[in-house]
Sequence to fold (175 residues):
Amino acid sequence: MHARFASPWDAPQAPLPWRSLIIGSRRSDLTATEGRDCVRWVTHGRRPVFRSDWVEVWLDDVEIPGHRRLEHHVVRFPRASVTAVVTNDADEVLLLWRHRFITDAWGWEIPAGWAEPGEDLQEAACREVEEETGYRPTQAQHLVTYNALSGISTMRFTAFLVTAADLVARPDDTE
Fold:
C-alpha cells in the first residue's frame, strides 16, 4: 500500500496538511507563550573550543532562569544549510541511499548541503540536487526553514520543494 499525500498545489492558501499535524494550528494563530511556560536561557559568555572553515565548537556559560548556571557545548556552522524534497507527478520522493562514516550506518537521505557565501538559497538547494542526484530542478518553492538540532547546534536548514526536474547527468558520488 502506497501512502498518498494531499497536494499542496491544489489549495495554496491552505496550510500544508503535515504542518497542521506538527503545530496543531495555523502559525498565525499561535503566540510565543500559548500553552506552555516559556523560559529563555541567559547567556553570560562564550568561548571557542575549536574552529575550522566547516564548523566551530563553543562552550557557552548559560543560566536557566530559576535554576542553575552551567556550561553548554554549542556547534556553530558558518554557512547556511539547504535541502530539497524532490517529488514527481506520481507523488514519489527522490531519496539517496548513503553510507555515513560518522555513524558507520547506511540510510535514506534527501539532497542537502551548504550554500556558498552570497549564493541564493534556492539556487544552492537546486545545485545540491543536481550534484547529488543528476536531476536539475526546473520548479522549486520555499517549503520551510527549521533548526534541525536547536538544543546543541546553530545549523539552520532552508528547505525547498522541487516539483519538476530534468535528468541531466550522473550524480557525483563524492557529494
The radius of gyration is 19 Å. The CA atoms of residues 19 and 54 lie 31 Å apart. Confidence is low (pLDDT under 50) at residues 1-32. Strands lie at 42-51, 56-63, 69-76, 81-86, 96-100, 105-109, 112-114, 135-147, 156-167.
